[in-house]
């Protein structure tokens, strides 16, 4: 009974003061955006067939969406400091809709790649504005609020890619990607009508409270430098793993595309549970005691993946690897809290953009390695990288 009372109190705290509607709108839109991004990996074989892509160029397609998303977070962060998050978040989803509409009608590989970049740029405007708004709405429950929005993202990644896989087989890959467009359009309306409608800087005329020199000085602190390295390494692993896991399961483990898509969905389904728990753990015990526990399972899972066969065993390994999904609820909450409010949006944009751009080459590198016959060895190396991230956690103050 005590546990249920605690859950009720937490939910009441997240819902109180009319904040719950905003939280739901932000979470639903984020789930749709991230789920849409994760439709790309299961569709890579279809892109390859229709546009003549190799494993390397298919990896480049995924890298482009990540790279565009990373580059756009710098202007996204600056805009989040100066304008209403309501405007930034609705614009983000709207641009993504335009990009997807072009992707599904792309007549050539060039148009496919260019439209994918537009999708990535649209996605880029959402993360920082989401974090700064939640920071304002939930100053004492940021980990929990971020954990819930990230769980929504995993729900989207669990549900949308398998549906896309089935539609791609039955109707065509265009329907596998295009079916999300109506839902994204509805989320634009939901964001516009539920988020706070005005803020002091809403007209865009206010200047930043801090100079560029002050922003750079704050971001050059040892703690943020360590966080930057950790984020780069983790994003390298995350982007690489998510880009090629369905292809790996089909090519190396002999699974059918629908079964591989279901396992890929299971990976994110586990995150629906992991992320809120990770966020709550961060709020209670800090980053040094929560993050190593979250990453431990993924180290084991990635290391044993090449030596496991059969659907049942792969289910267990997939769940183990999925524990790394709790990383974001912890590291993003920590990063948001250690950057001062005056430069929060700009600072988050710069850190997330720089680390994302550096790590965006991961799928291309991994695709080249896999194309040379070292798929299995690549996953063992990813386990080593996650172990390095875990060790770096011990250098951080709990803040």
TrEMBL record:
<feature type="transmembrane region" description="Helical">
    <location>
        <begin position="347"/>
        <end position="366"/>
    </location>
</feature>
<protein>
    <submittedName>
        <fullName>MFS transporter</fullName>
    </submittedName>
</protein>
<keyword id="KW-0472">Membrane</keyword>
<dbReference type="InterPro" id="IPR020846">
    <property type="entry name" value="MFS_dom"/>
</dbReference>
<feature type="transmembrane region" description="Helical">
    <location>
        <begin position="378"/>
        <end position="396"/>
    </location>
</feature>
<feature type="transmembrane region" description="Helical">
    <location>
        <begin position="215"/>
        <end position="238"/>
    </location>
</feature>
<keyword id="KW-1003">Cell membrane</keyword>
<dbReference type="InterPro" id="IPR036259">
    <property type="entry name" value="MFS_trans_sf"/>
</dbReference>
<dbReference type="Pfam" id="PF07690">
    <property type="entry name" value="MFS_1"/>
</dbReference>
<feature type="transmembrane region" description="Helical">
    <location>
        <begin position="290"/>
        <end position="308"/>
    </location>
</feature>
<dbReference type="InterPro" id="IPR011701">
    <property type="entry name" value="MFS"/>
</dbReference>
<keyword id="KW-1133">Transmembrane helix</keyword>
<feature type="transmembrane region" description="Helical">
    <location>
        <begin position="51"/>
        <end position="68"/>
    </location>
</feature>
<feature type="transmembrane region" description="Helical">
    <location>
        <begin position="21"/>
        <end position="39"/>
    </location>
</feature>
<dbReference type="GO" id="GO:0022857">
    <property type="term" value="F:transmembrane transporter activity"/>
</dbReference>
<dbReference type="GO" id="GO:0005886">
    <property type="term" value="C:plasma membrane"/>
</dbReference>
<feature type="transmembrane region" description="Helical">
    <location>
        <begin position="258"/>
        <end position="278"/>
    </location>
</feature>
<dbReference type="InterPro" id="IPR050189">
    <property type="entry name" value="MFS_Efflux_Transporters"/>
</dbReference>
<feature type="transmembrane region" description="Helical">
    <location>
        <begin position="177"/>
        <end position="195"/>
    </location>
</feature>
<feature type="transmembrane region" description="Helical">
    <location>
        <begin position="314"/>
        <end position="335"/>
    </location>
</feature>
<keyword id="KW-0812">Transmembrane</keyword>
<feature type="domain" description="Major facilitator superfamily (MFS) profile">
    <location>
        <begin position="22"/>
        <end position="399"/>
    </location>
</feature>
């Amino acid at each position: 009974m005590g546990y249920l009372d605690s859950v009720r109190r937490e939910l009441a705290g997240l819902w109180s003061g009319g904040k719950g509607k905003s939280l739901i709108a932000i979470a639903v839109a984020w789930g749709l955006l991230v789920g849409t991004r994760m439709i790309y990996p299961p569709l890579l074989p279809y892109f390859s067939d229709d546009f003549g892509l190799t494993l390397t160029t298919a990896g480049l397609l995924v890298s482009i969406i990540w790279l565009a998303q990373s580059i756009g977070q710098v202007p996204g962060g600056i805009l989040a400091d100066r304008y209403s998050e309501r405007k930034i978040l609705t614009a983000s989803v709207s641009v993504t809709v335009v990009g997807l509409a072009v992707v599904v009608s792309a007549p050539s590989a060039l148009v496919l790649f260019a439209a994918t970049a537009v999708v990535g740029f649209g996605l880029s405007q959402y993360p920082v504005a989401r974090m700064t708004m939640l920071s304002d709405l939930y100053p004492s429950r940021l980990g929990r609020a971020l954990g819930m929005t990230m769980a929504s993202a995993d729900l989207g990644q669990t549900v949308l890619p398998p549906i896309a896989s089935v539609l791609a087989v039955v109707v065509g890959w265009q329907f596998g990607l295009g079916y999300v467009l109506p839902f994204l359009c509805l989320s634009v309306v939901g964001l516009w009508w539920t988020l706070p409608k005005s803020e002091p800087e809403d007209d865009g005329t206010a200047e930043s409270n801090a100079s560029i020199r002050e922003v750079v000085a704050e971001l050059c602190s040892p703690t943020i430098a360590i966080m930057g390295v950790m984020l780069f390494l983790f994003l390298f692993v995350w982007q690489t793993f998510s880009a090629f896991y369905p292809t790996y399961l089909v090519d190396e483990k002999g699974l059918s595309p629908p079964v591989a898509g279901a396992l890929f969905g299971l990976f994110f389904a586990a995150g629906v549970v992991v992320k809120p728990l990770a966020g709550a753990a961060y709020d209670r015990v800090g980053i040094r005691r929560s993050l190593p526990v979250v990453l431990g399972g993924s180290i084991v899972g990635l290391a044993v993946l090449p030596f496991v066969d059969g659907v049942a065993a792969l289910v267990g390994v997939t769940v183990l690897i999925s524990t790394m999904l709790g990383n974001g609820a912890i590291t993003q909450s920590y990063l948001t809290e250690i950057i001062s409010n005056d430069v929060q949006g700009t600072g988050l944009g710069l850190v997330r953009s720089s680390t994302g751009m550096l790590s965006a080459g991961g799928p291309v590198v991994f695709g080249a390695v896999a194309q040379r016959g070292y798929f299995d060895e690549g996953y063992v190396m990813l386990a080593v990288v996650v172990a390095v991230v875990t060790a770096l956690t011990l250098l951080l103050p709990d803040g």
